[in-house]
Amino acid sequence: MSAGGSAATPLAPTRAKVPKAVFISWVALALMTTSSVASLRPAPTMAVYGLASVFLYIVPAIVFLLPTSLVAAELASGWKGGVYKWVAAGISKPMGFLAVWCQFAMTIFYYPTLLGFVASTLAYVINPALASNGVWTALVIVVCYWSGVFISSRGTKAVAGLASGGLIIGTLIPGAILILLGAVFLGQGNPSAAPMTADNLLPQWAGLASLVLIVNNFLSYSGMEMNAVHVSSMRNPSRDFPKAMFLSMGLVLLIFILPALAISWIVPADELSLTAGVMQAFDMVLATFGWQWLTPIIGIMLVSASLAGMLTWLAGPSRGLLLISREEGYLPPFLQKMNKQGIQQNLLVTQGVVTTVIALGYALIPDVSSAYWIFSVITTQVYLIMYLLMFVAAVRLRKHQPDHPRGFRAPMLVALCGVGFTASLMALLVGFIPPSQFGGGNPIVYFFIVAGGALGLGLLVPFLFYKFRKPSWKQPANAPADESDSEVSS
Q1: Which of 26, 80, 304, 459 is the most exposed place for a label (fewest CB within 10 A)?
Q2: pLDDT at 274 over 80
Q3: Which residues touch 310 (CB under 8 Å, ≥6 apart)?
Q4: Average pLDDT in the 398-427 region?
């Protein structure tokens, strides 16, 4: 016993110093990507197109989702630190700040959109008539958002595990139920609300406005750059990462397309609410089978998943902006203040004030669907600015730093960036055109609302922060929260 122990003792520390490498399989990464991208929330937006929704989902997947995934994988495998580091290294630090700002700023409009869906879904649990009530929608947004800020400011870590459960509870199970009941609905001889013939594979062309809703699909596919950070944890990234992306693309398309088709079978396009369309479809098809008592249960599942996603991502983008701003002095000290838990409380509170003002738009704009669409477009426009910068940075880094170590090299990078940049720019420009479904509104008013929200928040605000920054705004690296607070107070 002792002899064995003496012989083994010198070897124990050596083994401890060499931990076994842990790799992510390409299937696991595909499922992670699917869980972070796929959702039932955009289904009503595309259901108004019926069978043409298949085309309108596949096109942005090819010209945006695929380039974004492969390009972000190369950047993540060579430059750690996210989109700020990528753009700062490829273009300049000011452009890097603009990129990380847009990644943060899009959430200001994203949360009212997400919580608008929560409000309309929750209405079906309480009173379906509330789904089209702007005051109800605004109230739910304000209460849910500030509750999320309070929870996040306490440094709660338990919510981080809710996202994976949200995929199953709020997406896969309700989506499978909707598709199955929709198929049975048609199988019983009920006519489809939308024609399902070959003549309807492409959207009807009625000018640029008829294709504007495709812009929302770019937001549905956004966020792939966040999953690209896992490329360095793959055993053979050059072979396995493309496989993971193609599998996740297929899964995401199925989750997006099939529920949208199921809704189009059940709910006529002219009766479809962009916020409550999922619950409309559930309510109608469950009523057909005499199972309407399940509607509130489905609603609670959808709401729970959406709120879990909000809590999980609430502090993420703002945290990245905070760290960069403390290092470079991009934001005033007030917005850099952290509480004792190390949470960026003032940044979250300021974001909450703006979110509250935006939420009032639901109460002031007569049509809740119109407000939902406008805020969705603004969210997409701001995020697309970041993607434009990312594609430019990738080309410049490949050109000026071709020998920089990369764990993954995207094939035909320049072509991928060209396709992604062009698609993003076209989507950004098309977003300023009112969609045909809202043709009754004033297009000039629509343009100025979208332009003011997207360009003002996405370009003007970060320019002003950068223009008036001061050297004193820089904070010591790794300063503890209590030290930071005292510095800000002084």
Answers
A1: 80
A2: no
A3: 111, 114, 115, 144, 145, 148
A4: 92
Token pair, residue 482, equals 């209590």
Average pLDDT of 252-259?
A: 90
Contact yes or no for 398/413 (Cβ under 8 A) = yes
Nearest of 409, 411, 404, 453 to residue 428 by alpha carbon: 453
Measured CA to CA, the distance from residue 458 to residue 382 in angstroms comes to 5
d(CA 228, CA 78): 11
Q: Which residues contact 201 (CB under 8 A, 6 or more apart)?
A: 51, 52, 54, 55
> Is the CB of residue 123 less than 8 Å from the CB of residue 300?
no
Please, which residues have CB within 8 angstroms of residue 373's CB and are 6 or more apart in sequence?
Answer: 45, 216, 274, 435, 438
**Distance between CA atoms of 106 and 104, rounded to whole angstroms?**
6
Q: Token pair for residue 190?
A: 């009920």
Q: Give the ranges where 61-92 is alpha helix by DSSP (H).
A: 66-78, 83-90
Distance, in Å, from the CA atom of 175 to the CA atom of 58, rounded to the nearest integer, reads: 19
Tokens 């996202």 correspond to 163
377: left (phi over 0), alpha (psi -120 to 50) or beta: alpha
In the prediction, which pLDDT does 210 show?
56
How many angstroms separate the most distant Cα atoms in the chain? 89
Distance of CA 325 to the CA centre of its chain: 23
Calculate ∠ Cα 199-40-26, nearest 5°. Answer: 100
Q: Residues for the chain: how many in total? A: 490
Q: Do 396 and 414 touch, CB atoms closer than 8 A?
A: no
Give 161's contacts (C-beta < 8 A, 6+ positions apart). none
| 171, 41 Cβ separation under 8 angstroms | no
pLDDT per residue as tens digits for the range 285-313: 888 888 888 888 998 888 887 887 777 66
Q: State the residue for tokens 């989750």.
A: 255
Per-residue tokens: 208: 């640029």
Distance between CA atoms of 119 and 112, rounded to whole angstroms?
Answer: 10
How far is 30 from 251, CA to CA, in rounded Å?
9
- Judged on CB neighbours under 10 Å (0-12, 13-18, 19+), 263 is buried
CB atoms within 10 A of CB 412: 11
Give the residue from 19, 130, 113 showing the smallest Cα distance to 382. 113
Q: What is the pLDDT of residue 483?
A: 42
For 456, the enclosing helix (H) or strand (E) is: none
Token pair for residue 444?
């000039």
From CA 386, how far away is CA 296, in angstroms rounded? 38
Helix ranges restricted to H, 79-172: 83-90, 93-126, 134-153, 162-167
What's the CA gap between 104 and 115, in Å, rounded? 17
Query: Residue 489: is its pLDDT beyond 50?
Result: no
Alpha helices for 162-204 (secondary structure H): 162-167, 173-187
